[in-house]
Amino acid sequence: MFRRAASIVGWKPDNYRLVCMTYATMLRDLTDPSGICDMATASITILLRRIEAGIQFAYPDYHTGQGLMVYARGRRTNKWLFLRPFNWVVWLFLFLSALAVGVSTWVVEIVTKPKAARRVEDKDDDVGVVELVWSAGAQIVNAADPMRAFSLPSRIIIFVWAFLILLLVAMYTGNAAAILTASQVDVSIQSISDLQGRSWGAYNNTVDSMHRNGWNPTVLFAPQNPAETEDMLQQLATGAIEGLVWDCGFVDYTSATRCEFYKVGDCITEDNRALAFWQNATAPLVDAFSTAILALEENSELAHLHKNFIQPTSTICANEAAGTEQQVTFNQVSGLWIVLGATIAISMGLAFIGRHAKLKHLHKIVKKTISLRASGEDVDKETPMPDGKQVKVIDTRVAAHIL
């Protein structure tokens, strides 16, 4: 970030020299009138006491805070984990759809086959609405024989319903496997309030902020090298301290790369980081870098740098953290119900059209029969039709009953 800002200011690589030093030495140098550094590029936290000490700050380039980290000791169990693959709305619509499919299939069967309206319990061909609803629901878990239907519109509904179940079962199977094999940590510390009365640690320079918020860390750390940082983490792992409040960037990175450590919630405090300048630095220099950083923020380059160099990338820890974001929501699969609803509507239309055409044909036959009866002809014989076909003429009372 400093190199990008320096290039905007007009500095070339041979115009400056980078010197590595400990954090404490760097802060002392910025307030020392005879210090050797003009500025610090370590993204220093902007604090009132530092400004009062003479340190100058550019426009903030990093917004962060303090985060709580604990040691993850086991897995969290959940007796209702098998329901998590689908959002509750998906479950609700799934079983309501079984009811709708059973009822609509029954209605279509009645419309397309009037005889089926008179249910006779001892006939295998007659399937009631209860049986159809049960078959539609049991198909979800493959606990019943295929639904029985005789008309084409009914079979279209059943086909689309089977297709919907096929896709949802595949989604459930894959999602359930991912969730059930996920590592879900079991921690007793759910917030910083749970640390009260326990042993926990924090960064030495944040103790004032801790006290202002009513938090009292029992151990203060000020690691100056990787070995001291590792020793601090080992105290957390061994239980010497039960929680550690540290910079959110450090907490995010550690919990993303070392799965035994777990970040609790979001950052519990907020602060800004910026380039820090020697107390005798000129105002134009500070203003020039502030303008450069603001330009990087406006063109999203600052966010790009943060994502590439600070934000943890996806790791095995993140992949194992199964949560509600893995649920299949209704919005993601609503298209299946749109197709099913359209299919039911179209099938109903086809059934009524077919029924109307059939009744119209029967009406012609009955009218012909009545005409033959009126002329005194034998109505029990096969009568030739104008197109050369033979039709069995039935009694007018039977025809009226069909209508």
Biggest beta-sheet profile: 5 strands, mixed
Helix content: 40-55%
The average pLDDT score comes to 80
Class by SSE composition:
alpha+beta
Strands across the major sheet, in which order?
A: 6-5-7-4-8
Total tally of structural domains:
3
Cα distance spanning the termini: 85 Å
* Low-confidence spans: 116-123, 319-325, 378-383, 385-403
> So how many helices?
14
Provide the gyration radius in Å: 38 Å
Q: Can you give a write-up of this model?
A:
The protein has 403 residues and is α+β, with helices and mostly antiparallel strands. The protein has three domains: 87 residues, D-Maltodextrin-Binding Protein, domain 2; 95 residues, 3-Layer(aba) Sandwich (D-Maltodextrin-Binding Protein, domain 2), CATH 3.40.190; 132 residues, no CATH class. It has 14 helices and eleven strands. It has a five-stranded mixed beta sheet with strand order 6-5-7-4-8. Strands 1, 2, 3 and 9 form a four-stranded antiparallel beta sheet that branches. Strand 10 and strand 11 form a beta hairpin. Helix 4 packs antiparallel against helix 6 and helix 6 runs antiparallel to helix 13. The radius of gyration is 38 Å and the shape is elongated. It starts with a helix and ends with a helix. Its main location: membrane. GO terms for molecular function: ligand-gated monoatomic ion channel activity; signaling receptor activity. It is a multi-pass membrane protein. It is found in: Cell membrane. It comes from Klebsormidium nitens.
